[in-house]
Amino acid sequence: MKMGNSMRVYEIAEGWGKLPPHIKFGYTHGIVVDSKDNVYVFHTEKHPVVVFDREGNFLSSWGEELFDGGAHGFYLHSENGREVLYTTDVNKGRMVKTTLTGEVLLEIGTPDLPNIYDSERKFIPTDVCVAPNGDIYIADGYGQHYIHQYTADAAYIRSWGGLGNGVGEFLSPHGISVNIRSGEPELYIADRGNHRIQVFTLDGKHKRFIDNDMDKPDNFYFFDDELYFPDLNSRVTIFDKHDQLICHLGEDQQAYKQKGWPNLPDEYYRTDRFSSPHGVCVDSHGDVYVAEWTVNGRVTKLERVFNPNVTITK
To answer: What residue ranges carry the coiled-coil annotation (predicted)?
Structure first.
């Protein structure tokens, strides 16, 4: 079974991701891939980080002592010759940096900003990214709708944002990543509740909006000159280097309108349609992995087809 359009085609790897009997997915929020094409899934049940090889064979799991059902943002970064993970925990209100096997390297909790945070106004971080110079950016997507910037060793630099729909304001800045495709690094922020992407300089100055061909962008994954993002309203989107649409994948414009969504009856889900995409990544072969926000989790692998004449099943 295939997915895509005349410009981009993928073969669905049905049954990918073989969980052992002692592990059950919760909400599958984040997904990343390392330099060996091993795939890491971040979810809200026990064993919150689950690692597979490229073929979907289970390799390992960890994190039960570290995360308590709050798994959310998930970012893999290469620094000083090794790969590390940056995570956000919406239950504990913190960002945690770890090795690929779960050793804690750094933690950042609620910013010391009494004009923004107090006993009632919580810090609930949904995503994190790292700039080329090592600065860390944390998106408070479920709390007070701010972006916070730190140095690589967690020294506070600045914050910007706040609730609203104007320039530099947010309604759930749910995802954040660094775009280096143009040569000048930029921050892409998924302003999900406002149905748009906002683009900033690395020091927080607004540059532009992107609001075409999206509904509720969750976060971002840059691969070569392309931008991939899960749209919570039932599709995955690929943009070219100019942020113009290449294709939507697995679009189901009825799924998010169903009663009880995102937790729909098992019989509703279809192999070639998405319901609630929340995370996406791309391996070195151009294959795409999608994690969906649903109570029993859902992870799909799409294998890139390089023959443009392949027929797509509707």
So the answer is: none
